[in-house]
Task: structure prediction
Amino acid sequence: MSNPEQLRYSKEHEWLSPAEDGVATVGITEHAANALGDVVYVQLPDVGTTVTAGETCGELESTKSVSDLYSPVSGEVVEANQEVVDDPSLVNTAPFEGGWLFKVRVAEEPADLLSAAEYTDYAG
Amino acid sequence: MTTAPRRTALDALHRSLGATMTDFAGWDMPLRYGSERDEHTAVRTKAGLFDLSHMGEITVTGPQAADLLDHALVGNIGGVGVGRARYTMICREDGGILDDLIVYRLQEQEYMVVANASNAQVVLDALTERAAGFDAEVRDDRDAYALIAVQGPESPGILKSLTDADLDGLKYYAGLPGTVAGVPALIARTGYTGEDGFELFVEPQHAEKLWQALTEAGQGVGLIPCGLSCRDTLRLEAGMPLYGHELTTALTPFDAGLGRVVKFEKSGDFVGRAALQAAAERAETAPPRKLVGLVAEGRRVPRAGMPVVAAGEVIGEVTSGAPSPTLGKPIAMAYVDAAHAAPGTPGVGVDIRGTHEPYEVVALPFYKRQK
Result:
């Protein structure tokens, strides 16, 4: 399992891409997807809503459990991935690619996000 | 007080296969090896291999073994033929279900009782206590057996390639001693998946050898190792109860819609007879809540303990729920008031974290294999 170098990571196992024109992409890590098992339902924040770093903004349901989705960053949601809503298995098969969750216009990025190496150590 | 989890004879093998392990009734068991949905589908369409060594085997022997079990359990155990198995229950004096069991009659005076892992000690204690005055011995054989199951439409072919035992003559709910891949085994045609399949009771020292042989024999036909996660969705689709969910000490077999397992016509008294007689009469006159199936119209998955609602009123409770790989929708089993238990009853929903999601009431099971 390798965590892409260019991403930053939260301790709630979300990843955040570098912002382009102020907009960053959010998803959950492969480690988190493996821990969840087969994801069957994804509830994402609505476009236009404001998310806050470290607070819940949706949920991920797997065969065995429901997990809250936390935002790793504060800002306004500008896009939600409809493909992953329609086919939640993308979270398992491509957590860093097609299984991305939402895009956010970054207002504030927490200072304590982890680098890929730090997250790899953290997730074990 | 916490004790270290117990490990089965196949523990190292599970870890080498990359299994995600989970604590189950004090045992460290494989939850899944890869995708639980793929494992579920393999059992429905090809074959799956399970380690079920956490199940509790109790051997009952002696001239009065049959009499003891007829007294201790609700079924007609003396009437089970040698080489056959019976699904039955052990109840308290007040009729509450202590556990559901499969009892195999291995010989005229020898039975093997298989209890759920979570109840093995309770069942062992109850049988030991109830054996007083009977010329029979109750033996804890939990450590004497590993249990490997091969389930799914390809399982007869896979097993046939490894044994000379007469599998064609082995009916559903029968068991016979034999040899599989050179390993002495009790071969039973039982399972908890809704598919054809076999459960193989072997000495723990032989478990790895048997597992490997079955893996190789099944390689060409799509057999994969399967964990407890898909076992749960398979049994749920098949409408099979799970102790602690559909069955509890607070319920009698009649409350669970399984009154047929209670055999009042057997001779002699048995533990719970009077209370169960009363429960049977109550079930006739004032129907209790009924165990039904629920199929989601949406995508939210109902979970055990969630309220079932109609017109804003709570009319029942979910006992098990999961996304069904076969139906492609969330399903659940639930106890609901008799007035809302008929298939197709309109206006039934489940309160999922504050939202009333609509569900269709259906008869169980959700899935039945084509024989």
